[in-house]
Amino acid sequence: MNLEKVVFGFFVLLAATLNFGFFVGDISDPDLHNVYELFAAVVVNLVATVLKFGDRTQIGAVHLATSLVADLQLIAAAAMYVYATRIAGGGLSGAETASVVSLSGGALLANIVSVVLLVVETVTYHRTQ
Questions:
Q1: What is the b/e burial string over 32-42, where b = at least 16 CB atoms within 10 angstroms of the residue's CB?
Q2: Number of structural domains the chain divides into
Q3: pLDDT tens-place string over residues 104-128
Q4: Which of 19, 25, 50, 88 would bridge with 32, disulfide CB 3.0–4.6 Å?
Q5: CB atoms within 10 A of CB 127
Q6: Burial of 70 (0-12, 13-18, 19+ CB in 10 A)
Q7: Phi and psi dihedrals of 124, rounded to 5?
Q8: Which ranges in the chain belong to alpha helices (H)?
Q9: pTM of the full predicted structure?
Q10: Residue 65 lies in domain
């Protein structure tokens, strides 16, 4: 068993599940979307991106692209959350929550593509002896 591949797969799947956990719920209800889960999704996605930098294959390039898209969207969601709660000072309205959750949904789609690529790569892997 290759420990590097286990760690890589772990972070790819954890990034997707954390993002999914934040995304699920009524899109305009801020009580259903935990800010700590969004923060965890951002951090784990960034770690997954760093792990994807060493792969020089074509599928590795697509893995990296999906991670960069997810990072960009999650960072934008977090920035929108911080703006709404700290800078504008009014707290999260339904519309602002919907924007944050929508950005998270785009990142979730990128995470799903990354998981599908991981599964395809694993299924097509041929062991050499």
A1: ebeeebbebbb
A2: 1
A3: 999 999 999 999 999 998 888 776 5
A4: 25
A5: 4
A6: buried
A7: -90, 0
A8: 3-23, 35-51, 58-82, 94-123
A9: 0.90
A10: 3-123
